[in-house]
Amino acid sequence: MVILISSISFTVYFATKIFGSKKGILMTSLLGGLISSTAVTLAFAKRSKDMPELSGELSFCIVLVSTIMFLRQFFVLIFINPKISLHFSIFAFLLFLAGIFIIFRQIGLSKSDVPINFTNPYELNYALMFGLLYTFILITSSLAYYYFGSFGVYFVGFISGAADVDPITISMAQLAKNGLSASTVLATIMIASITNTATKGIFASIFGTKELSWGVWR
Fold first, then answer.
1. Exposed, middle or buried by CB within 10 Å (0-12, 13-18, 19+), for 170?
2. Which pLDDT value is given to residue 122?
3. Alpha-carbon distance 109 to 18, whole Å?
4. How would you class 173 by CB atoms within 10 Å of its CB: exposed for 0-12, middle for 13-18, buried for 19 or more?
């Protein structure tokens, strides 16, 4: 599973190295959202402080990059647990389409460069960190379900979602194969996704301009 996620991330990482992030804010959003929507959010928030006149466009792109995360989760689930991915598809695509609608109603997105430094997903530290986080969440979720039932798993999803959605998504898909109910799995993934999205909104408010924060939260 670590190799799967690293391979998806490396494909986009390689593309950014070839084409760079100088294709404009929209291209950076589309590519960066497939690697780390949180990294893109932080980069855009900081750029809004340097170039306040771009705050409106950057805020809409943060919304876009956040919705791309849901699409990425869907495709990851297809490889791991196709049955769960079908149930998740409605949730994922509705939010993805909402993001597309929001971003394309903006006219004349800036072509300004917004450099973002992504970590090579095949570097040892990255792979080990992801593998440890995945294993920790898998074990914690199993124990939480054993002792506290579905609510324990929901809590794990809420906490882990603040950091990253991929480990909890993969963990839940695996646990579904081991007997965890589909409703609990889907609810946990959704909770983690919503938590992660809210966390990015908080980052935008802390590191970005007031206009950017307003554009992200409205």
1. buried
2. 44
3. 22
4. buried
List C-alpha distances in Å: 161 to 47, 69, 200, 209: 25, 12, 11, 25
Return the structure tokens found at 34: 């497939």
| Ranges of each domain in the chain | 2-112+124-217
Please tell me the distance from the alpha carbon of residue 95 to that of residue 52, in angstroms, as a whole number: 27
> What is the Cα Rg of the chain in Å?
17
Tell me the two tokens of residue 1: 């599973």
Region of residue 123 (phi > 0: left; psi between -120 and 50: alpha; otherwise: beta): beta
pLDDT of 6-57, one tens digit each? 554 555 455 545 655 445 566 667 776 777 777 778 777 887 887 788 788 7
Judge whether 215 and 55 are in contact, CB under 8 Å. yes
Alpha-carbon gap, residue 91 to 185, rounded angstroms: 13
pTM assigned to the model = 0.73
Q: Which amino acid is at 160?
A: S
How high is the mean pLDDT of the chain? Answer: 77
Hey, what amino acid is at 120? N
- What is the DSSP code string of 76-132? HHHHH-HHHHHHHHHHHHHHHHHHHHHHHTS-S---------PPPTTSHHHHHHHHH
The residue written with tokens 């792979």 in the block is 127
Question: Tell me: the pLDDT tens digits for 126-147?
Answer: 556 656 766 787 788 888 887 8
